[in-house]
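Re: beginner question about structure tokens

> Can someone show what the tokenized structure looks like for a real chain? I only ever see the sequence side.

Sure, here's an example I had lying around. Input first:
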Amino acid sequence: MFPLVAAEGVSSTVAPSITQADLDSVLDAALSYWAASGLTEDQLSLIESVNFALTDLPDATLGAATSTRVLIDINAAGYGWFVDDTPFDSSEYSLDANGNLVADESSTAFGRMNLLSVVMHELGHTLGYDHDEDGLMGDSLNDSQRLLPVIDDAEASSIDDFFSSLVDGENPLLD
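And the corresponding structure tokens:
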């Protein structure tokens, strides 16, 4: 199990816990994003069979995965989760100078961990992707940040193109 952690460590505040319904709403969106990326039927079956559970994970851990199970921290290491009611729209975020999706102080996502990013990250592990230096498969997440998959594998260029188009403002899931 390779845990995803909060980049700044545990928050000094204690945020409320999310519910299984919150997790399920984001899970459905994460599965839709991955399905639209061009996964094979076997890969889709694999991620659809993953069992998700809410638990109080240690320290700054946000989520952790095995090939069949994903654990999500109940309160995002004290930061609180941003549970997006419109997960196919990133309007709560804007692009910073480095091309990252970041929420500013006026956004409801500001200061919180993005649950969709964590769920998609952990599904990436079930698909066999390891941690890399940055992006969705990095080993940490900043609060107020949304990450989408960028996969460097040459065979996954259609996945790269799909998720790059989302950052550029297009969303084929809404078309």
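Each token stands for a local structural state, so reading them left to right follows the chain. The beta strands are 4-6, 51-55, 61-65, 69-73, 81-82, 94-95, 101-102, 113-114, 140-141, 145-146.
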